[in-house]
Amino acid sequence: MTEKLFDGKKLYITDLTLRDAHQSLLATRMRTEDMLPIADKMDRAGFWSMEVWGGATFDACLRFLKEDPWERLRKLRKALPNTRLQMLLRGQNILGYRHYPDDVLKKFIEVARKNGIDVFRVFDALNDLRNLRVSIETAKSVGAIVEGAISYTTSPIHTIKYFVALAKGLAEMGVDIITIKDMAGLIMPHDAYSLVKTVKEEVGLPVSFHSHCTTGLCMMSHYEAIRAGVDIIDAAISPLSLGTSHPPIESMVAAFKNSDRDTGLDLKLLAEIAEHFKKVRKKYRRFETEFYGVDPRILISQIPGGMLSNLINQLKEQNSLDNLNTVLEEVPRVRKDLGYPPLVTPTSQIVGTQATLNVMTGKRYSAITTEVKNYIKGMYGRPPGEIDPELMKKAIGDEKPITVRPADLLEPELDKLTRELGDKARGIEDVLSYALFPQVALEFFEQREKGTLKPEPIELPEEEKLEGETGGVHFAPSEFRITVHGETYHVKVAGAGHRNEVPRPYFIKIDGQLEEVLLEPLVEIVPTAGGYIESTPAVESKRPPAQKKGDITAPLPGKVTKVLVKEGDFVTEGDTVLVIEAMKLENEIHTPVTGFVKKVYVRKGDQVNPKETLVEIEEKEN
Known about the structure:
- This protein is α/β, with parallel strands linked by helices.
- Helices cover about 35% and strands about 20% of the residues.
- It has an 8-stranded parallel barrel with strand order 1-2-3-4-5-6-7-8, surrounded by 6 helices. It has a 4-stranded antiparallel beta sheet with strand order 9-10-16-15. A 4-stranded antiparallel beta sheet has the order 11-12-13-14, with no helix packed on it.
- The longest helix is centred in the middle third of the chain and has 17 residues, at about 265-285.
């Protein structure tokens, strides 16, 4: 098969514009309506493939855009009849944040193939090949091309020899192409050359190369990978390139024109495609990452762009953005303690959340997330290196980590999920959406049934509305200039702290410098699409502040997904009373005391913050 996919020394390009590029730069918010008008030109461009699905796009479609991700795939398949469509699959995690049983994984791949995916790029966050076997076998069985991806990172463990051994393991499983997946832009140019050349010589399969521009190394690393004989490079159309994204396609095409690695792509046609996405990017300016340039700190912390934005949001919500550098310093320490996992979904969230907790609590591992405990138990697979013994003892006591493939412990779910959904599902695609994101999918199905699906707003309010009054609502701009004693300053509202805090913290940028101000408004200021509106008077939280040991709080801001106790229940120290979703991961909240549940202040779906009492336990006297 692979001999037919490539022609001599020609350099091939996988276009990432419709998936990873806008995931990296625009919080995965691009709508299908902005993809279809340019699809014909992109189909004629001559890309080896186009990555259009997978990663965070599935979640974002359901959660924010109120689009059926399966319908998006079908529309793109119809609009791009001459181009291979590619998706990123997280191995046994599929597109979610936990391991799924084999029956769900197999059906997902089968249905994705049926709906239009030609190329499955599969990876595992820990590079545990056991977690990729079923994905690879299933994708091959339905006639798809399989790219086996190595999650690239740096540590004392992760050497060229280590990665080549992984590539050989992937080849033995039957993949068609080896992908070097550098999700944080860490690979040095000379390492890119050595790794590509060694894999091609020792494994004998075509190689594709994927890296981000976050650290400023990617253009040089791509050049060296090409010089070493890489077959495919990942790139994005120029308006959605660079920063936390990827190299610009046009630049790579121009650089190798009239050489023995000429891509054969038409720069004029690419320029026409770029014009479309220049306008598209402006449309989504509300979701622009604040990171535009090069951040060499990532070479130390190894934090991918998406993870960095998550950390910033978590700290903003806790009025602790000034702790960002401390958290960035803590991330590599936590990573070392956990055996040097590559920082890619979901391990990036696992490590990032724990690092934030360590900083915010002021004592390392005084609170350990459920997902860190599961990681240490081996529920995500085999860690690359040894876990710190003290941390292991603190997290799981005398319990022994599992040694089998995590999915071997899972019971089949597909039939059970189908029965649960009943007539809410219109087909197998709905069942699979529910399997991956149950709460989000149910909300989507209910709104779809009622005809009330409405995507979150993306446009900034019109200028005249910002200065006036519309329907009794006053709009306030999020970006403006202010003159004080003849000096003019550029001010931008960057975010707001917890609404129940009085005075409430707001984060503003003054001439690019982030500052915090405290406001005690007469009316509550509510964030909207790019601005803030005056709304109802501020309401203080009905949840009292935590004052005693039995007052249970959340370690991080999040959303309550499960309430496991009711008033009057007897609980024992260590029992789980709540489950809270934070940074896309579920965290169990345990009672620190034994006693009776006196008061429950939250319900499923509530947004919660640290320092609030969520459940009050009346401690039992000895």
